[in-house]
Structure prediction request, 660 residues.
Amino acid sequence: MIEANNLTKTFKDKKRGVVRAVDDVSFRCEPGKIYGLLGANGAGKTTTLRILATLLKPTEGSAVVAGHDVVSAGSKVRAQVGFLAASTALYGRLTAREMVTYFGQLNGMPDGQIKARMKQLADELGMHDFLDRRCDKFSTGMKQKTSIARTLVHDPAVMIFDEPTLGLDVMTARAIVRFVRDCRDRGKTVIYSSHVMSEIEKLCDKIGIIHDGKLVAEGTLSQLSERYGETDMEEIFVKAVGGEAALLAAAEKQA
Amino acid sequence: MMNWNAICTVYFKELKDSLRDKRTLITTIVIPTLVIPTLMFGAGFVMTKVISKAKNETSSMMILGGEASPKLVEAFKSNEDFRVIETTEDFKDKISNKEIRVAVDIPAGFDATLAAGEVPDVTIYHYQGEMKSSMGRGQVSGFLVDYRADLVEVAFKERGLPLSLAKPFVVVSENVAPPEKVGGNAIGGLVPYIIVLLCFTGAMYPAMDLTAGEKERGTMETLLCSPLDRVNIVMGKFLMTFTASVATMILSLTTLGISAMVAAKVLAGSVAGGGVGGMGAVLIDPMGLVGVFAMILPVAVLFSAVLLTVSLFAKSFKEAQSYVSPGMIIIIVPAVLGMLPGIDLNLSTVFVPILNLSLVCKEMLSGVWNWEYIALIFASSGVYAAIALWLCVKMFNREDVIFRA
Prediction:
């Protein structure tokens, strides 16, 4: 379960002054459901997810993840969260097995449990061929599998995905999408951000559209479709953010 | 909250990771153990060879004039230290071009002037600053002084005067310092300088790799996703940096010590007595070295923490290098100041970091143990180190530093 209440995050920027990267955002993600966060680049998706993963502290507002407050109980939240982003890389000089084992240890798991979990994950993800090879020699597919195993080693209740398919080839991206569904089917709370409309459309049970730091629309695909009188996700998105002019203005503000 | 299990997990992972990194291995192990002793030993060896060769070679020289002074000319020619070459007009060019070392000008009527009781000038032409020419000048000048003393002796004998009239007393100098004190003073300033530099360079690479390097490669965010409190991540990384710093020092001091002993044996054989060969034979008090090592530990903590803090601020390894490299100059200055004569430990220098270390090391290596100062320096270094470590933890908790875009 994720509950974000009036989350706000401001940054100081030399050129732009005080920037409200996330502005009064509230939403709820239920267990066994995928919540999709859809937004253009720089809309505030990554900042929102980093706050939920306790990497950043909110300037205002609060969030409860898996029953713990992100500000006052950061490490308890992280123990219940698997965070996978395009920016979370692997240690190139460690093997896949060492990488996963390290994160098991960091989560305080005993050795026997890590070994059993490692075998289970390697079976499920098909990692046995490259388990003892160094990560810097991996293909993107192998890297993603290892990253997934890393996020799952402690069997977290909440999964946070920040543009996990960014820059991946079709096959690897499809494997990720399949894995995200798996997480939902196992009853985990999943939040998934992307700027790819089709991914969000296919995958998510509930969609939040974020624009310029604000959550401008929220609902299931059919609810959004009804509200904006469009069936195409891209058209819904453009209408929700206030038209193409608004998108352009936001992009220019960032430049 | 500090959790030693977590710190050890991070530490051992960083250790494994660093031991697999060629660049870390080169800066922390290969350079101090192989390159530095090779350079020192090699340079010493070449220098000794050159000097001993120059010393063993006869000095090539020209004699200008001297037609009317056959005895002096003959004395030069029959001395095996000199090789007298046929005189040419361009003797100055020949000296400049290092074809001959020196030329000596015996004025016309030298013998007659002497006999008349007057004082003629004998001029030695040489090239100042050039090693072989200076050696030649020394030899010719020594030879002429001896020759003059002989003349004096003969003249005194002829007149029936006692020789003590010309040489009323003899000057003798004797060293009272024990051998390790001579060593302590001679290289006591140099050892802390080398050790401070190694302590810094040993910590430099891992500090940059474990912070800016991780940010650049995207693993920092992965690590921060783990439930560990930041302080444990910092401590694990700090311990790794500290280990590298101390390992570099131990390795290089050991290899330096061994190569100094080997060099002393090898080089002492090639140069008979004194000179550069004598440098290797210098004795260092082993207790002094233990003391130096103990005093450097808080400084290694300080360096590791400061390097981590500064590198953490950088977005990339390259950026970190540009922040850290000037640090090398900053630490060299106080280390060098400590080598200068006249700067001693007192109540103000005792609190200047690095300089105090440099000064106390010089004392300890020459057998002086000033316990009040040693305690003050150890304590102040410890305080500086603690502040640096605290700052480092603070920096790791600053999201504008960790996620600096």
Summary: The CA atoms of residues 175 and 271 of chain B lie 22 Å apart. The first strand of chain B starts at residue 59 and ends at 65.
